[in-house]
Amino acid sequence: MSTLLTKRLARSLWRTKLRLYSVVLMIAVGVFAGISFGTYANSTQTLYDNIYADDEDGVNLPDIWVENSAATWDGATAASLCQTISEQWPDASMPLETCEPRMVIDGLMFHINEGEEKLIPAVWHGIDEGRVDRVWMPENDCCSGRLASADDEIVLDEHAASGMEIGIGDNVSIGAGHGSMDFTVVGIGYHSQHLFFSQHG
Question: Which of 51, 115, 124, 143 pairs as cysteine with 137 (C-beta 3.0–4.6 A)?
């Protein structure tokens, strides 16, 4: 019975070739989509594990964030808060290993494109060579340079650097509040909060 039905289905599809081609095309697209997504899932399964790893090569994301959007803490205040948190840490079996302050400011970047200055919204992160929430600079053509060490040096996110065609040694002007400051680009990398990867095009 099943053989007869199969023959009738094949005969019917052959009579309407457009329907046959449509069925074959849908099957091919489904198989191709399954293979593509499976390959993508396998390739990204370890990619982000390596990026966010808690070692010298990863960014080492913080386990706890303490945000203060009402005021700006100075170094002494931040150190005092870290000391207080460490002393009052509730779980001795999971001790607080590192507490590091970060300054995050919304600002602008003054970018000159074709002779015209444009204001580009930006977020500025104060990151030193700490152990937590580091800049990810893999050994790849996308990233180069080093972390900023002087007051007039800056590291740009690769997305912004490639989009505005900014390279190592270029000068950039940024502002947050009143006035602006000039910095020299000494590194290009990725920030842990802005890791979005997609194919160009």
Answer: 143
The pTM score is 0.65
User: What local confidence, expressed as pLDDT, does residue 185 receive?
Assistant: 93
| Residue 133, both tokens | 């929430």
Q: What is the 3-state secondary structure (H, E, C) of the chain?
A: CHHHHHHHHHHHHHHCHHHHHHHHHHHHHHHHHHHHHHHHHHHHHHHHHHHCCCCCCCCCCCCCCCCCCCCCCCHHHHHHHHHHHHHCCCCCCCCCCCCCCCEEEEEEEEEEECCEEEEEEEEEEECCCCCCCCCECCCCCCCEECCCCCCCEEEEEHHHHHHCCCCCCCEEEEECCCCCEEEEEEEEEECHHHCCCCCCC
- How much is the pLDDT for 197? 57
Q: Are strands 181-189 and 144-145 parallel, antiparallel or unpaired?
A: antiparallel
Ranges of the chain with pLDDT below 70: 1, 13-14, 44-45, 47, 128-129, 196-201
